[in-house]
Automatic annotation (TrEMBL):
Its cofactor is Fe(2+); L-ascorbate. This is Gamma-butyrobetaine dioxygenase. It is an enzyme of class 1 (oxidoreductase). PANTHER family: GAMMA-BUTYROBETAINE HYDROXYLASE-RELATED (PTHR10696), OXIDOREDUCTASE AIM17-RELATED (PTHR10696:SF25). NCBIfam families: carnitine_bodg (TIGR02409). Its EC number is 1.14.11.1. InterPro entries: AlphaKG_dependent_hydroxylases, GBBH-like, GBBH-like_N, GBBH-like_N_sf, TauD-like_sf, TauD/TfdA-like.
């Protein structure tokens, strides 16, 4: 609820019943008006352009009506009501000087010792609350397991169907990770893989990866996940200048291992939003191309920071490990969480299938579920 409102031609100042005050510009209020001539009923899309708003827009009246704000704009003579809770949610009159390298408030970073978020296949397919919890874990922690699933090939596509769509690449709608011990072809080896994000040479990168286990009778081969955001936080704590170098200059990544394919990207290893929020990690030694965008006098320091980030990522205290059983899968936010595999040997086989999807579908599904069942989301 609002307690009071004052205004001049260009600014409206409101006081909430909590005693908090907030200011809103006339142009901002008019652009975000909630009336049906400004916003389409139903989908909420804006029906006007910035050019439709008079350049001399001003406020001629602002008053409280049933706890909400009613504003009249000139020269249009248009009156619009703004709910108090909507104004509180969208206020921007606050200190915007936030620390560089911070994570979003709904993200929790982690290291070894965290219990891997997990859900049951049948539960997430039958119970909306279980599904919402699984999606929320991916959003908060960047990864989650799914257990008790079928062992038929292509079952991973049903995982993507829970929230969105498979993102097809040059590898197809999905790819095989089928490696047999004592192979006849060295392509099918049990070598370990350093923690990495997938496909950093794409622009944009696939934002989610699903790995689904169909067979796993080999010794070893545990999966490991590492929180790249936590690694970046540690680098920022230990070496803020090095953090700034990895965030401030683009790395280069490349893949040209197949005929007719040459993928390249130019993006930083640590990606920040313009206001300093940590939004992405790209780390993959196998796909790194020569770095040519770092000034000569900064290159050695850049490589020192790169080495330090790698050492943090390789620290066993950073990783959460688990061995997938047939019918189990895990999903990772590929813009944040790195994944690795321990080497394995002995008798047996290991067969996984993998695919990519996009995080916007998962976040959209989660947000829609929370809006439709807000009491269950609390």
């Amino acid at each position: 609820m609002l307690r009071s409102a004052t205004h001049d031609a260009s600014v409206v100042t409101v006081e909430f019943d909590t005693g908090t005050k907030a200011r809103f510009h006339a142009i901002w209020l008019r652009d975000n008006a909630l009336d049906p001539e400004t916003r389409a009923p139903g989908n909420g899309q804006r029906l006007i352009t910035i050019g439709d708003i008079p350049s001399d827009i001003s406020v001629s009246a602002a008053e409280i009506s049933n706890g909400d704000l009613t504003v009249t704009f000139q020269p249009e003579g248009k009156t619009v009501t703004f709910p108090a809770d909507w104004l509180a949610e969208h206020g921007y009159d606050r200190d915007q000087n936030r620390p560089m390298g911070r994570t979003a408030p709904d993200i929790t970073t982690w290291g070894r010792g965290i219990d891997a978020p997990s859900a049951d296949w049948d539960e997430v397919h039958a119970n909306p609350s279980a599904k919402r919890g699984w999606l929320a874990a991916v959003a908060e922690y960047g990864f989650a397991k799914l257990t008790g699933g079928p062992t038929e090939p292509e079952s991973l596509l049903k995982v993507a169907d829970l929230f969105g769509y498979v993102r097809e690449t040059n590898y197809g709608p999905y790819f095989e990770v089928r490696t047999e011990v004592n192979p006849t072809n060295l392509a099918y080896t049990g070598l370990g893989l350093q923690a990495h994000t997938d496909n950093p040479y794409r622009d944009p990168v696939p934002t989610l990866q699903i790995l689904y286990c169909l067979e796993n009778s080999a010794e070893g081969g545990d999966s490991i996940v590492v929180d790249g955001f936590r690694a970046a936080e540690k680098l920022h704590e230990q070496n803020p200048e090095g953090f700034a170098l990895l965030a401030g200059y683009p790395a280069r990544f490349e893949y040209k291992g197949s005929d007719g394919i040459c993928l390249r990207s130019r993006r930083p290893m640590i990606e920040l939003s313009p206001d300093g929020e940590l939004v992405g990690i790209r780390f993959n030694n196998r796909s790194s191309a020569p770095f040519v965008d770092v000034p000569f006098d900064q290159m050695e320091a850049y490589y020192a920071a790169y080495r330090q980030l790698g050492e943090i990522i390789d620290d066993p205290a950073m990783g959460v490990s688990f061995k997938l059983e047939p019918g189990e899968s895990f999903i990772v936010d590929n813009t944040r969480v790195l994944h690795a595999r321990l080497g394995y040997s002995g008798a047996g086989s290991r067969w996984l299938q993998g695919c990519y999807a996009d995080k916007d579908g998962l976040l959209s599904t989660l947000a829609a579920m929370e809006m439709s069942q807000p009491e269950a989301a609390e």
